TrEMBL record:
Enzyme Commission number(s) of this protein: 6.1.1.20
GO molecular function: ATP binding; magnesium ion binding; phenylalanine-tRNA ligase activity; tRNA binding
Cofactor annotation: Mg(2+)
Residues where Mg(2+) binds: 256
Organism expressing this protein natively: Tautonia sociabilis
Bilayer-crossing regions: none
PANTHER family: PHENYLALANINE--TRNA LIGASE, MITOCHONDRIAL, PHENYLALANYL-TRNA SYNTHETASE
Domain Aminoacyl-transfer RNA synthetases class-II family profile: 121-307
The encoding gene: pheS
Name the record gives this protein: Phenylalanine--tRNA ligase alpha subunit
Length: 331
């Protein structure tokens, strides 16, 4: 997409959004405008953010600056519209000196939702789009296409939630990467985020349901150096510029070579394992119809709960699901 065309779409989006908030005359109308333009799932500003990957790489900085300005303007218009429609009407016989009813305490986004949005934003600045996929998966996408053979321990029924029809709850968000590559020719640059399920015993560091964010980049000439640079830029953006990162050799069926990623930050003396990564195995590329002689790629997976816990000093993963307002109100 040409930059001029993309900027024109942002200009039109800003004009339409400002008009919608300006003309909204009731709380219901303001909320409808917010959902249409600023909604987290299908809002127009979210769609405009995802169009970043369609813009030429050399123009993404200019597009991003204009996008941020439009988003800020629409958020300000929303706040202004809320304040306008919330003012008490000057009705006949209304005694504005009487004590008012205390306003209910407003909630806010869950810490995991905040973390996921922050991760998506960080990777978006690096040119990664966002992909999502089904949580109920088939064996091909969850295992076969990821180079996990039938006898592999990862397929053990004790380590998965199999359903009666042969499907299963996905055990990793790598399934989304397979689905993206099946329908999109290279180049590919996406992060896949969502819930995954494994029958682990619940304790302070484990749960049977948690969230992952995985990155995938496939193109001509992609190397381990690109993977290392990407993860370093991400770590500095999320944890601070003093973060250190290291790779330890490991093994995963879907990457070769494979590494574990450790991080150290804020002058600490303990390396913390944050996830796995590696170069996409040629068999995985063949499974989706790519030619490993023409393209290469890297992939990485990080735990959203783990990142959130490490950043905020949380020591028990169960706090995320107990709905304790004392805990949630801190974020």
């Amino acid at each position: 997409m040409e930059l001029s065309e993309a900027i024109a779409e942002l200009d039109a989006l800003e004009a339409a959004g400002l008009a919608a908030f300006r003309e909204a005359g009731s709380p219901e109308a303001v909320e409808a405008a917010r959902i249409e333009y600023l909604g987290q799932k299908q809002g127009k500003i979210k769609a405009a953010q995802q169009r970043l990957k369609q813009v030429e790489p050399s123009a993404r900085k200019d597009y991003g600056q204009r996008f941020n300005a439009v988003k800020t303007a629409l958020e300000a218009a929303w706040e202004s519209a809320k304040a306008r429609v919330d003012r008490p009407a000057a009705a006949s016989g209304l005694d504005v000196t009487l004590p008012g009813t205390p306003r209910p305490r407003l909630g806010h986004r869950h810490p995991l939702t905040q973390t996921a949005d922050e991760l998506i934003d960080l990777f978006g600045r690096l040119g990664f789009g966002v992909a999502r996929g089904p949580e109920v998966e088939d064996v091909f996408h969850n295992f076969e296409a990821l180079n996990i053979p039938p006898a592999h321990p990862a397929r053990d029924p004790a380590d998965n939630f199999y359903l009666s029809d042969g499907a299963l709850l996905r055990s990793q968000t790598s399934t989304i990467q397979i689905r993206v590559m099946e329908r999109q020719p290279p180049p590919v640059r996406i992060v896949a985020i969502g819930r995954v399920y494994r029958p682990d015993a619940v304790d302070p560091t484990h749960s049977f349901m948690f969230h992952q964010i995985e990155g995938l980049m496939v193109d001509r000439g992609v190397t381990m150096a690109h993977l290392k640079s990407t993860l370093r830029l991400f770590a500095e953006g999320y944890l601070g510029t003093d973060v250190k990162i290291r790779f330890r050799p490991s093994f995963f069926p879907f990457t070769e070579p494979s590494v574990e990623v450790d991080m150290l930050w804020h002058g600490g003396d303990r390396w913390v394992e944050m996830g796995g990564a590696g170069m996409v195995d040629p068999d995985v590329l063949r499974a989706v119809g790519y030619d490993p002689e023409e393209v290469t790629g890297f992939a990485f997976g990080l735990g959203v709960e783990r990142l959130c816990m490490r950043k905020h000093g949380i020591d028990d993963i169960r706090l995320f699901t107990t709905n304790d307002v004392r805990f949630l109100s801190q974020f």
